[in-house]
């Protein structure tokens, strides 16, 4: 695992760690420590096809919920940087870390084609986020990693022609160039899921609670639907990492 440096992302991660330390101190004073009861969630995972306005929707959902937002760049930075990953995981207490590592070990798919070390690091990051709770996680297969019924798992879709149009407008590209780039991104997206989770990306119904077609709604409408649905989730009770997986 490499040590990398991205000052902007490092600053964002440090802020999250500081927020968690403050929250943990408050919970300890109120005898509400999450680590011993191994609570998971609440969380929202948002997966999307390229150029479905996924980042905009996820950020707006996080703002509406008052939750923390983690995108691909932040998750990858934590998973790839040794020091950051160590600090991230040690934000949990020892018992919770042990339970998490046991859970990850039993859920590693030996049929996946990806690098096992990377997948283990990725799962540790995603699980740590979910244990802290009140997070919106964009991409990185989080809906395939986290236990079911502990949060809301959303997929954003859109027709190819509309995604091409968004890319054309965003980057001032010709239609042919934009379409070529979208198709390449789709292949990369599919390869990531197949490599690390042994998932057929064409089956968009897997491990999802909600699918939203961004061709028929605005970013604001989508974020409102997601936030409203998340608020209707039943209150979470203490639960083992292995329960309800």
List the helices and strands and how they pair.
Layout: H1 7-29, E1 43-48, H2 54-65, E2 68-70, H3 72-80, H4 82-89, H5 94-107, H6 116-132, E3 135-138, H7 142-145, E4 151-157, H8 160-171, H9 175-197, E5 210-213, H10 219-231
Amount of beta strand: 5-15%
SS summary, helix count: 10
Instruction: State the helicity in percent bands.
Output: 55-70%
Tally of strands: 5
Task: Name the CATH homologous superfamily.
Answer: P-loop containing nucleotide triphosphate hydrolases
Shape: globular
Strand/helix succession: HEHEHHHHEHEHHEH
Describe it for me?
It is built from ten helices and five strands, in the order αβαβααααβαβααβα. By secondary structure, the protein is an alpha/beta fold. It has a single domain (7-163, 205-231), classed as Rossmann fold. It has a five-stranded parallel beta sheet with strand order 2-3-1-4-5, sandwiched between helices. α8 (160-171) crosses α9 (175-197). The longest helix is centred in the N-terminal third of the chain and has 23 residues, at 7-29.
Concise description?
The protein has 245 residues and is α/β, with parallel strands linked by helices. It is 55% helix and 10% strand.
What descriptive keywords fit this protein?
245 residues, alpha/beta, Rossmann fold, 10 helices, 10% strand
């Amino acid at each position: 695992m490499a040590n990398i440096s991205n000052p902007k992302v490092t600053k964002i991660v440090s802020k999250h760690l500081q927020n968690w330390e403050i929250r943990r101190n408050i919970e300890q004073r109120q005898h509400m420590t999450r680590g011993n009861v191994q609570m998971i969630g609440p969380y929202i995972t948002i997966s999307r096809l390229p150029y479905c306005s996924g980042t905009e929707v996820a950020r707006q959902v996080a703002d509406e919920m008052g939750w923390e937002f983690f995108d691909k760049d932040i998750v990858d930075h934590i998973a790839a940087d040794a020091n950051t990953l160590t600090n991230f995981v040690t934000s949990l207490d020892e018992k919770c870390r042990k339970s998490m590592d046991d859970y990850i070990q039993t859920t590693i798919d030996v049929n996946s084609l990806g690098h096992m070390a990377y997948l283990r690091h990725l799962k540790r990051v995603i699980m740590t986020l979910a244990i802290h709770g009140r997070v919106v996680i964009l991409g990185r297969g989080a809906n395939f990693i986290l236990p079911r019924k502990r949060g809301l798992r959303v997929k954003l879709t859109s027709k190819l022609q509309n995604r091409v149009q968004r890319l054309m407008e965003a980057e001032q590209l010709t239609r042919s160039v934009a379409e070529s780039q979208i198709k390449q991104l789709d292949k990369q997206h599919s390869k990531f899921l197949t490599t690390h989770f042994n998932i057929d990306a064409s089956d968009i119904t897997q491990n999802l609670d909600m699918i939203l077609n961004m061709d028929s709604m605005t970013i604001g409408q989508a974020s409102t639907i997601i936030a409203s649905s998340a608020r209707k989730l039943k209150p979470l009770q203490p639960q083992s990492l292995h329960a309800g997986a």
